[in-house]
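--- STAGE predict ---
source: upstream dedup step, 1 unique chain passed
mode: sequence only
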Amino acid sequence: MRRFCPGWLPTLAVLALLPGLIALGCWQLGRAEQKRVLLAAYAERRTEPPLAVAQLAPAGDDAFRRVQLYGRFDSEHSLLLDNRMRDSQVGVELLQPFYDQPSGAWVLINRGWLAWPDRRVPVRFDTPAKALALQASVYVAPGSPFQLHADPVGGQWPHLLTAVDPGGLWQQLGREGFAHELRLEPGPAAYRLGWPAVAMGPEKHVGYAVQWFALAIALVVLYLYFGWHQHKEKRHGHRHATDRA
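--- STAGE serialize ---
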């Protein structure tokens, strides 16, 4: 019966790494389930008739709900969401406040993607002056975005941002507005649309989970192998030393 003798350093390493690898795998499986729920909600709500802005719940689950709007854009306070890629081209997404006349509420509408190949030239866009009937859908960001630095809140408009914060915009402008971004559907005010329902599908998260679990299994296998192998080498070393004596 071979003895298992891995040593205390490998044991400490396994005890430190193994729980983390398993936790990362379980976290990725949890993210996959969240994405499945989001995709199911997206598919269901795309078939529902659009709601009025007044029917949206400020703190409710409104992700992907379609909304019917009528009003005007605020052309003086535009936002440009930077680092948006389409077909390997760099660009921005244009967001503008929109006053919905039936509800008397402000919403922030994402009008779509614009190419911006030359940063020395300002982005060119037009804002309809007349009142429009539009349809859009609610986009709820999945958590806080990662930012290397804070975006500016003052200065010349349009503001160039790396993350959208509708609540911060309404506070800056002194207005009451809806807390989430609305993404425009095809119509007279839309630029290039076509957002995916989720940035990363459930299958990607499952694939990452498999990788983390595979690393955990490999760590355990190596630990067991070297534990038995090291004990075997020690026994052989002891026999050679005895023979020489």
